């Protein structure tokens, strides 16, 4: 049994050696140098492994024609990426917010100085009272009549000298008119929101850091897997194949980081664009509110001035009414004074007549006494008669003098009344003219204020139109700059894949039975990643070439910004997916149209008040999933 075991062991060892030699022979037979349409594949032994097995290095070269094309593609990709980086590296030229016009509004209209010097006539109240002589003469008669005592008590009339002078009212009123016409204090503080134009900075860094935290562990795992696969294939550090694989993996990581950086910049630009649009909307809202407030102030000032004009007119009407009433009172007092003076004059005339009758009666009594006294007293009677005649003549002359004085007093009072009446009429005419002038000034002030309000309103409307035009122009400039930078981002993304080397096709050769690395599993993983990348593009999600994961972003998706659009597929919910180019860009893109998403997923669409629409691909992906 021991020999059989030794033989079996020897046979096994021999078989193992033969198997090893067979495997080496088969490997050498499989490593056939190939010449194909795309280039050559050459195998060279570059060393021996620790177990004594030969180690080979495969070298692939493109044909000179393809190599020249590849060099041009690499150069084009480099220049495209350089141009895009140059564009993105420059500060965004979004300009500054427009300087909104604030018109110089007119003020001061509607103010007027009204005449208040209404006249009150200086009326003469010193009506004349006649100085009537009340001392009628009593004759000194010779009383030494025989047998008769003569009555000497002749009456003298008591003349009333208290002729009435009318106390006329002089307090004619001039209306105290309000002159405090209001001028609306219009607001001109049009506010400009601080519009964001920083498309880089903190937002970009946050997105980059978040993506890097996801990619770094994945890259470490993939690099470890690559090291294991290379080791299984016998590819060791220092070998050309090892260095090429590591270089390709490093390029793969660099492309992923560049895509992540570009996507962070694009997302930050979308956020800044939304903030800028919000700022513009706030500016327009502030301008509209200020215009509404100014319109309300102008209207309130017009109403206040109209009310003040009505109040002034009421004061003028009240002053005219009061003056007319005062004039009627004075007229009544004058008429009463004339009537009173006439009554006094009649009383004085009656008193004079009564005194004459009493004296005549007394003369008759004395005459009787004289007659009774007889002839002896005839001479005395004649003397007394002469005296009585003289006294009667004196009293008559005195009565005539009193009558003339009364007539003169009445004429004087009549003249004073006429003069007062003329002064009152003159004052009334002056006050009426002054009232008319004030009314005309008030009306003119109202017209001036109305004209000023209209002029200010026209200026405000003109300034609003100019401000709207400036804001529209500024927004157009912002959108143009945003489109230019988005185009640069897309070109930079395209440049990361533009310069990749196309593999050289190989010719199938017989394979050895030696256990190899799980190429099928590796192929399946790569195929799954490619499928995921295609699904991400078809779902509208901007990604990092499939292998770098996907991050949500907002991209310009308005149909009006695209050209050469062609439907190439649809999302899970039936939303169409198009291949297209942005206007002015040669690169073909895959994505959705904002007009389609607006119908099926409106919350994923950003619609500015003016300009082109964009789509939030992250939101769209969540809605479709």
Describe the structure.
This protein is mainly alpha-helical and 625 residues long. It has a domain of 108 residues. Helices cover 60% and strands 8% of the residues. The chain has 8 helices and 9 strands. Strand 2 and strand 3 form a beta hairpin. It starts with a helix and ends with a helix. About 6% of the residues have low confidence.
Protein topology:
Blueprint lengths: L1 H29 L3 E3 L2 E10 L5 E9 L1 H26 L112 H31 L7 H134 L4 H121 L20 H20 L15 E3 L5 E9 L5 E7 L5 E4 L2 H7 L4 E2 L7 E3 H8 L1
Antiparallel strand pairs: 1-2, 2-3, 4-9, 5-6, 6-7, 8-9
Helix pairs in contact: 2-5, 3-4, 4-5
Which features characterize this protein?
mainly alpha; 60% helix; rod-shaped
Summarize the structure.
It is built from eight helices and nine strands. With about 625 residues, the chain is mainly alpha-helical. The chain has a domain of about 110 residues.
């Amino acid at each position: 049994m021991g020999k059989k075991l030794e033989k079996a062991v020897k046979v096994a060892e021999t078989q193992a050696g033969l198997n090893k030699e067979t495997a080496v022979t088969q490997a050498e037979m499989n490593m056939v140098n190939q010449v194909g349409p795309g280039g050559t594949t050459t195998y060279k032994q570059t060393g021996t492994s620790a177990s004594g097995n030969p180690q080979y290095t495969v070298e692939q070269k493109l044909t000179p024609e393809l190599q020249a094309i590849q060099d041009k593609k690499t150069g084009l990709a480099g220049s495209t990426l350089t141009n895009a980086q140059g564009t993105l590296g420059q500060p965004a030229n979004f300009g500054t917010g427009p300087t909104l016009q604030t018109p110089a509004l007119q003020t001061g209209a509607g103010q007027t100085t009204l005449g208040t010097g209404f006249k009150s006539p200086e009326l003469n109240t010193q009506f004349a009272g006649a100085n009537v002589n009340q001392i009628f003469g009593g004759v000194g008669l010779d009383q030494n009549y025989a047998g008769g005592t003569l009555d000497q008590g002749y009456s003298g009339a008591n003349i009333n000298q208290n002729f009435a002078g009318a106390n006329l009212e002089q307090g004619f009123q001039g209306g105290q008119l309000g002159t405090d016409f209001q001028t609306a204090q219009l607001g001109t503080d049009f506010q400009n929101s601080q519009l964001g134009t920083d498309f880089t900075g903190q937002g970009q860094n946050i997105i980059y850091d978040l993506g890097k935290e996801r990619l770094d562990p994945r890259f470490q795992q993939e690099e470890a897997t690559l090291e294991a696969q290379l080791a299984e294939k016998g590819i060791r550090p220092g070998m050309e194949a090892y260095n090429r694989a590591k270089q390709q993996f490093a390029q793969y990581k660099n492309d992923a980081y560049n895509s992540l950086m570009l996507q962070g910049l694009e997302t930050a630009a979308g956020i800044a664009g939304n903030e800028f649009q919000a700022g513009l909307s706030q500016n327009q809202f502030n301008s509209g509110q200020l215009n509404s407030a100014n319109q309300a102030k102008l209207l309130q000032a017009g109403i206040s001035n109209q009310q003040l004009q009505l109040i002034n007119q009421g004061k003028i009407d009240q002053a005219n009414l009061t003056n007319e009433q005062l004039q009627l009172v004075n007229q009544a007092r004058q008429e009463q004074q004339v009537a009173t003076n006439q009554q006094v004059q009649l009383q004085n005339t009656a008193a004079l007549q009564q005194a004459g009758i009493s004296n005549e009666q007394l003369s008759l009594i004395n005459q009787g006494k004289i007659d009774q006294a007889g002839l002896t007293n005839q001479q005395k009677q004649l003397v007394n008669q002469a005296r009585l005649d003289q006294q009667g003549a004196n009293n008559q002359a005195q009565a005539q003098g009193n009558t003339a004085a009364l007539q003169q007093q009445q004429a004087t009072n009549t003249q004073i009344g006429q003069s007062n009446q003329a002064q009152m009429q003159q004052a009334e005419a002056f006050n009426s003219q002054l009232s008319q002038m004030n009314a005309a000034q008030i009306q003119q002030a109202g017209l001036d204020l109305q004209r000023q309000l209209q002029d200010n309103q026209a200026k405000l409307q003109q300034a609003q139109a100019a401000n709207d035009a400036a804001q529209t122009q500024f927004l157009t400039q912002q959108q143009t700059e945003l489109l230019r930078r988005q185009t640069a981002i897309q070109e930079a993304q395209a440049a990361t894949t533009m310069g990749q080397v196309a593999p050289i096709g190989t010719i199938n050769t017989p394979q050895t039975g030696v256990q190899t690395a799980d190429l099928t599993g590796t192929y399946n993983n790569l195929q799954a990643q490619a499928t995921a990348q295609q699904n991400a593009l078809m779902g509208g999600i901007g990604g990092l070439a499939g292998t770098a994961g996907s991050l949500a972003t907002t991209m310009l998706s308005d149909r009006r910004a695209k050209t050469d659009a062609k439907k190439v597929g649809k999302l899970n919910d039936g939303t169409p997916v198009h291949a297209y180019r942005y206007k002015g860009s040669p690169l073909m893109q895959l994505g959705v149209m904002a007009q389609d998403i607006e119908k099926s997923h409106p919350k994923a669409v950003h619609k500015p008040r003016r300009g082109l629409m964009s789509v939030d691909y992250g939101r769209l992906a969540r809605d479709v999933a």
